[in-house]
Amino acid sequence: MTIYADSFFLDSDLTDTLQNRIKRQVVEGILSGRFLPGERMPSSRALARHLGVSRITVSFAYNDLVADDYLVAQGRSGYFVSLSAPSGIQFEPPGDPVENTMDWSRLLAHRNGATSRIDRPVDWRAYPYPFVYGQTDPKLFDHQNWRLCALQALGRKEFDSLTSDHYERDDPKLVEYVLRHILSRRGISARPEHVLVTLGAQNALWTSAQLLLTQRRAAAVENPCYPGLREILQQTRCRTHVVEVDDHGLPPDAIPEDTDVLFTTASHQCPTNVTMPIWRRHQLLRRAAELGIVIVEDDYEFELSFRRSPSPSLKSLDDMGRVIYIGSFSKSLFPGLRLGYIVAPSAFIQEARALRTAVLRHPPGLIQRTAAYFLSLGHYDAQINRMRKTYQRRRQVMEQAFSDHGLTPVGEEDHGGSSFWMMAPEHVDTERLASRLQLRGVVIEPGRSFFDPKSAPKHFYRLAYSSIPSARIARGVELISEEIGTYGSAIDA
Amino acid sequence: MTIYADSFFLDSDLTDTLQNRIKRQVVEGILSGRFLPGERMPSSRALARHLGVSRITVSFAYNDLVADDYLVAQGRSGYFVSLSAPSGIQFEPPGDPVENTMDWSRLLAHRNGATSRIDRPVDWRAYPYPFVYGQTDPKLFDHQNWRLCALQALGRKEFDSLTSDHYERDDPKLVEYVLRHILSRRGISARPEHVLVTLGAQNALWTSAQLLLTQRRAAAVENPCYPGLREILQQTRCRTHVVEVDDHGLPPDAIPEDTDVLFTTASHQCPTNVTMPIWRRHQLLRRAAELGIVIVEDDYEFELSFRRSPSPSLKSLDDMGRVIYIGSFSKSLFPGLRLGYIVAPSAFIQEARALRTAVLRHPPGLIQRTAAYFLSLGHYDAQINRMRKTYQRRRQVMEQAFSDHGLTPVGEEDHGGSSFWMMAPEHVDTERLASRLQLRGVVIEPGRSFFDPKSAPKHFYRLAYSSIPSARIARGVELISEEIGTYGSAIDA
């Protein structure tokens, strides 16, 4: 039997090559049982004509399929579905599933509830004025070298590091780079046994909270703070104290006495961007020692200080082993990478590694090795350099636009980074403002989810410049200013 | 000032190219402050001579470094360290860290304790007779196509799926393939909202246990069972019932009445390889319905049934939405990939996704997309086909060797798979046996860690054939038989 060319169609996946789309058609036809072993495929000429592609494309697809034993070539007779092709299955589109016979609200022992995430449209890249935080700018990311490093990590001689299970150790090349070149810039001396590679900073925060907190212990967090941290603490069922930050970040005297674990973003407070001065850091460490508190330091975005060198990390001032340090490559490489690390005393790292093993074994080897190459070949530092220069330029354009259009960022920021923390007039609800601005092509991030939900003000918002081109900034800021202007002086429209 | 060629040396990393090793030297010199901005680099001729490499290699390295702004080229004067090169830091080898001022045994709220893992030497690949389970055979893995798929996933037009944070959805191409081509083979009809991609089966089991168990609930596990599962259950602090498996797997009548969640490997019991017959599956589902039990089905290794088609999954017989189904690509692709999935009612998947978001956000996009290409282009099926044929051959060789040397696997196995579950004479401690065999180049897996620690017998062991070449099997089995023979009839040597 011959399979006719017109039983083929090209799917609409334009991101893929024609050759792959043809191969996929054949494979799906065989697997779904539409094409049976021994059947003759249409000639490459006929199929090429039918699909409107070149004959060579079809030939290449067929040859690949022969290599994988879906097809066999029989000289001048053409191509046939292989008799030993992967066996056919019948594909039925799924019917209505059974859902409601089980009472999941009772069966689920733990509910994670609604997560408070920062609002942002899924298709934010399509907006002309995306003041969106923490996503990668394709123009700044060194995609080509990343790809080369991945290729190297995928090499045949790296097979073992790519494919094997390694519970006990992380990629030694990655750990070595973190120790020698990253931690040393933060004033931290550490050894391999003090480092655990995690699935991003989120996973590092989660792991630390799991190990240190129970429902009988108390955590203290900055207010405002990173919303993901609040989710994590909810899961541990610990009590949570909320400490208001001031112009110098977290005030040590305000930390309640019964606190067991303190979470801080000392070098660059999230989201206000305030840097804690060195005198206060010493004060904080003294108070933590008095109260016997463990400090978890989330040192995010330190690579992006372009205004002056980053102040040394809290951990570098810690001579008691009290600080659990968390770093990440999400901001400097890209968030989808999911690669971060914890630096802590080895007793802590040992337990963290055991927990990680139970939860997920280890971060994929390919990702670790690719990052190790990217770092050690200097691409990472070159990229940071590029980002710093670009962000510095954009920041100046932002400041100019603020002054032109009468917007004011909150507080002084002497560090750099990638965003401004903004305050609208008190009667402006920035969640509504954000919705209205989206209609005009502007994406801003309302500030409410950063605050303790019990007393969250509504008139703060964040403007990031890591994803918006310089040339769009002025008009974007103008639109925000205009939209705020449409709110009556004291009436929330 | 000129940097002299002899301040360079090539590190001993022979896995890397000469060009990269030269670049790394320069980058490290600049970052560590050994080479300062404005200093002149040795000429490519001088450096090539010093290192004993070709001049063109040095030139290529220099050109790459110029592109990344570590060096600048100044016509005939040569290369200089760029004035805007990433700034120097002083690298001090880490001194002795502070460790003992904090009482971590008190501060750590949760201890994960010693993990019971299957013993196997780290360098097992170097042993001539590795009867090691669940690791990838480089000869069977389609490395070249995996690499091509990764390259495609790393393409510029895939930038967004590679780099962005996606909390809410997994890679749609991957999910579609799992639904259409994998689950349909297991008799399962499901929709995208019923699937969550996880970091391997371990992460899927962990997530299910977290959502379903507390210290007030009871789990039941098969005995023997996968040791990682016991670790996971310890963390939830639930009560754990142990149910002895028989020749048909888990006997439903033996499940204690107060069980809330049952974990089973019905299609292919781990580690005994027994397949639960269809009549018992129905019996199991009836008993679970009577007692209101949720079943977690770990359907590992179903792709490797070569003796007959795999029996349909438990979930395919479940018309009440009672079964949480777990699949993985660890055995069929490779364990270091860390990619698995949960199939469950959407109410469950929603909570599982919220938990995953808090713990780790999402599995890296690159890994998901690479797997999606590998699957959809048919390489996965082709590879499974190859593995089945090879394993079937190896299994025959194993059986012949057992009969030649008087070893007996436990029970009948009509499924296929990649290992035998073995019983030595009762007075043989297989942990000692394993140590002694390692001295003779043979790696076996002692069985004790699979059993409930309270009553673990010592004379079982597992022999896998997924990583040992056929030609080595007979001699390996002979060595095992010889070594067992050296034990006195009733005296444990």
Name the quaternary structure.
homodimer
CATH class of the largest domain in chain A: Alpha Beta
Structural class of chain A: alpha/beta
The CATH architecture classification of the largest domain in chain A is 3-Layer(aba) Sandwich
Largest interface summary: A-B, 125 and 125 residues
Q: How many structural units, i.e. domains of chain A?
A: 3
Q: How would you describe this structure to a colleague?
A:
Two copies of one chain form a homodimer. Chain A is α/β, with parallel strands linked by helices and 493 residues long. Chain A has three domains: 5-81, Arc Repressor Mutant, subunit A, CATH 1.10.10.10; 124-134 and 381-485, Aspartate Aminotransferase, domain 1 (Alpha-Beta Complex), CATH 3.90.1150; 155-373, Aspartate Aminotransferase, domain 2 (3-Layer(aba) Sandwich), CATH 3.40.640.10. Chain A has 15 helices and 14 strands. The first copy, chain A, has a seven-stranded mixed beta sheet, covered by helices on one side. Chain A has a three-stranded antiparallel beta sheet with strand order 11-14-13, covered by helices on one side.
Keywords, please?
Aspartate Aminotransferase, domain 2, 3 domains, three-stranded antiparallel beta sheet, Arc Repressor Mutant, subunit A, Aspartate Aminotransferase, domain 1, alpha/beta, 493 residues, 14 strands, homodimer
Brief description of this entry?
The first copy, chain A, has 493 residues and is α/β, with parallel strands linked by helices. Chain A folds into three domains: 77 residues, Winged helix-like DNA-binding domain superfamily/Winged helix DNA-binding domain (Arc Repressor Mutant, subunit A, Orthogonal Bundle), CATH 1.10.10.10; 116 residues, Aspartate Aminotransferase, domain 1 (Alpha-Beta Complex); 219 residues, 3-Layer(aba) Sandwich (Aspartate Aminotransferase, domain 2).
